[in-house]
């Protein structure tokens, strides 16, 4: 079983609709924040990679909404890798609330490029740091 990175998030009022649930597009922001903290925890902050001319644009995202998250819920966002290959990097995500209720499952697909958006091999030292989190089982 691959390791999981876990990121905590408390739902803010600004993230919610009048119906008191997180607006559907805000989940992409939560996933982005969790991936950023994951990279920081690996000792490779996104800004450091960017300064070394590596960026990882999202080329596809799949989200499956299971249950609404509401204002003040304490969420745990789990992150792992579903693919690490030459210029590809895919992340699996799961969000659960404080009661263990599954809120969302998602997968984001990234390519590694230079700042001028030309495909670029993943740095070998990053690949080594990512390996413990690789679980090739996709969600969709």
Write a structural description.
The protein is an alpha+beta fold. It has one domain (5-133): Thiol Ester Dehydrase, Chain A, CATH 3.10.129. 21% of the residues lie in helices and 32% in strands. It has a five-stranded antiparallel β-sheet, covered by helices on one side. It starts with a strand and ends in a 10-residue tail after the last helix. The model has no long low-confidence stretch (mean pLDDT 96).
Provide key terms for this protein:
140 residues, Thiol Ester Dehydrase, Chain A, globular, alpha+beta, single chain
The strands making up the biggest β-sheet line up spatially as 1-3-4-5-2
The geometry reads as globular
The largest β sheet comes out as: 5 strands, antiparallel
Measured between the Cα atoms of the first and last residue, the distance is 18 Å
Overall tally of domains: 1
Q: Helical residue percent?
A: 10-25%
- Proportion of residues in extended strands: 25-35%
Which CATH class? Answer: Alpha Beta
Fourth-level CATH superfamily: Hotdog Thioesterase
Compute the number of strand runs: 5
Mean pLDDT: 96
Number of helices: 3
- Output the radius of gyration: 15 Å
> What structural class do the secondary elements suggest?
alpha+beta
List the secondary-structure elements in sequence, H or E.
EHHEEEEH
Q: What CATH architecture do you see?
A: Roll
Low-confidence stretches: none
Kindly report the CATH topology. Thiol Ester Dehydrase, Chain A
């Amino acid at each position: 079983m691959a390791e999981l990175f876990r990121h905590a998030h408390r739902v803010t009022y600004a993230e919610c609709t009048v119906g008191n649930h997180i607006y559907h597009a805000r989940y992409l922001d939560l996933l982005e924040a969790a991936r950023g903290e994951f990279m920081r925890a690996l000792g490779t902050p996104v800004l450091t990679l960017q300064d070394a001319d590596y960026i990882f644009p999202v080329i596809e995202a799949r989200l499956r909404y299971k249950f609404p998250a509401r204002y003040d819920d304490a969420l745990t966002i789990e992150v792992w890798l579903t693919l690490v290959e030459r210029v590809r990097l895919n992340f699996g995500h799961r969000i659960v609330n404080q009661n263990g209720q599954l809120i969302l499952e998602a997968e984001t697909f990234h390519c590694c490029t230079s700042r001028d958006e030309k495909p670029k091999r993943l740095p070998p030292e990053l690949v080594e740091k990512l390996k413990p989190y690789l679980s090739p089982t996709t969600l969709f």
